[in-house]
Amino acid sequence: MNSPDNSAGSPSTPRLRASLETFPPYVPGKAPKRIEGLAPFKLSSNENCLEPLPAVVDAMVAHAKDPALYPDDAALALRTDLAERLGVSIDELVVTTGASELLVALTQITSDATTEAIYPWPSFEMYPQTTGLAGSKRVEVPLREDGRHDLDAMAAAITDRTSLIILCSPNNPTGPALRDEEVRRFLTQVPKNVLVALDEAYWEFATAESVVDGVDLVADHPNVVLVRTFSKAHALAGLRVGYAHAHEAVIQGLLKAVIPFGVTDMSQAAALESLRHSDEVDVRAKEIAAVRDDFAHALRDQGWDVPEAQGNFVWLPLGELSSAFEDACVEQAVAVRNLGDGVRISIGQQEGLDRVLAVAAAFHSEHFS
Ligand SMILES: Cc1ncc(COP(=O)(O)O)c(C=O)c1O
User: Fold this and answer.
1) What is the per-residue pLDDT for 9?
2) Domain that holds residue 323
3) pTM score over 0.90
4) CB-side exposure of 85: number of CA atoms within 13 Å?
5) From the CA of 310, how far away is ligand 1's center (Å)?
6) 283 and 178 share a domain?
7) Among candidates 24, 64, 71, which has minimal Cα distance to 259?
8) pLDDT along the chain (369 residues), means of 10
9) Backbone phi, then psi, for 162, in 5-degree steps?
10) Atom of ligand 1 nearest to the CA of 168
11) Atom 7 in ligand 1: which residue has the minimum CA distance?
């Protein structure tokens, strides 16, 4: 008989899986402190600082009428529109409750206690959570000094137990985006039976030359799955809509792991309407990218070593000063994200960014001049 993971645990506590002890819980970005006379800014969760487009809000209202009914489980209208825009088959798409659900489902369909998952680190905090929960061995490959994936080291980490590799482009929290050529070279070193998830949550903000595009990669590689979301550029984080694109065999696997009826009718309608305004969404994403570039340049001008920033956020590698920097921002009514070895600042309204710049300037002259 198989014994449960923690059969050695106390008989008076519920039998939870031992793998729960191997990774920390997900910690969401904090809300800003309320300070008299200062407008608060939440720059801690990589949310879009703009509201959804008015037509999208209208679509939400129009679809908020029938909560007694289950939504379309197949998300047919949304998948049909996505398929046309991406130039792929609807059978190569699945719509989920944000990219987060996909990350869970991808580990469910690839990973267990006999397998290994490789991902860059630091990167998105859900990677240790989902792969750890599945019980697989977590192989965290440190980023290079410049905050980029170390693809050579990731390739060298592959064993015959590897079942899942996650790439994040642009990488949350450090910012650099992967280039098409380096990912294709990497894929030549990955066995065909290893699933490679390319997480492009911030794809629309990337402005660098030759940034990898998962749709092209999937066309050439049956072991690649592209993960995208409406949470970031589409400003719909609260509605929880994401999607995966992959060859049909992978999608069929994912369909067995995702939650039935997860994406509400209102969320599907909003995402569809936002897609219909893709041009405007793109213009706004590029406006945010321009603010990001100015912010990153201003920090570099102060003397900070800021990695290439391609998402809607900028990474300050503060090391042991991270907590002090976060605290100084808190006192300016600005919430930033302290991740231990650095602080991530989401692009928001200029006033909030200016306050962070003032804190950064004071920190730099106090600690590095
Ligand atoms: C890299 C990355 N992937 C996936 C997600 C999950 O996005 P969502 O579940 O909101 O679609 C996030 C959210 O911050 C992220 O940063």
Assistant:
1) 58
2) 26-46+279-368
3) yes
4) 15
5) 15
6) no
7) 71
8) 49 90 90 94 96 95 92 98 98 98 98 98 97 96 97 98 98 98 98 98 98 98 98 98 98 97 97 98 97 98 97 96 97 96 96 98 92
9) -65, 125
10) 1
11) 99
Same-domain pairing of 90 and 235: yes
Closest atom of ligand 1 to CA, residue 231: 10
Taking each helix axis from N to C end, the angle separating 278-302 and 350-368, rounded to the nearest 10 degrees, works out to 20
Domain boundary among 276, 306, 340: 276
Distance 90 CA to ligand 1 centre (A): 23
Ligand 1 nearest-atom number relative to CA 97: 9
Residue 4 in any domain: the answer is no
Tell me the C-alpha distance between 253 and 249, whole Å. Answer: 6
pLDDT of residue 66: 85
Q: Kind of pairing, strands 337-338 and 343-346?
A: antiparallel
Cα separation, 369 vs 268, in Å, equals: 52
Angle of helix 265-276 relative to helix 76-86, nearest 10 degrees, comes to: 30
Measured between alpha carbons, how far is 334 from 343 in angstroms, rounded to an integer? 12
Tell me if 244 is assigned to some domain: yes
Residue 365: its H or E element: helix 350-368
Does 5 fall in a domain?
no
Q: Which atom of ligand 1 is nearest to the CA of 103?
A: 4
Q: Give the Å distances, CA to CA, from 160 to 138, 164, 195.
A: 14, 11, 13
Query: How far apart are the CA of 264 and the centre of ligand 1, in A?
Result: 18
Contact 128, 140 (CB under 8 A): yes
How confident is the model at residue 91, as a pLDDT?
98
- For residue 261, report the distance from its CA to the centre of ligand 1, in Å: 20
The binding-site residues of ligand 1, defined as CB within 6 angstroms of any ligand atom, are: 46, 98-100, 124, 168, 172, 199, 201, 229, 231, 237, 242
Residues 256 and 303 in one domain: no
Among 261, 276, 291, give the residue marking a domain's end. Answer: 276
Per-residue pLDDT, 103: 98
**Whether residues 163 and 301 fall in one domain:** no
320 and 240 inside one domain: no
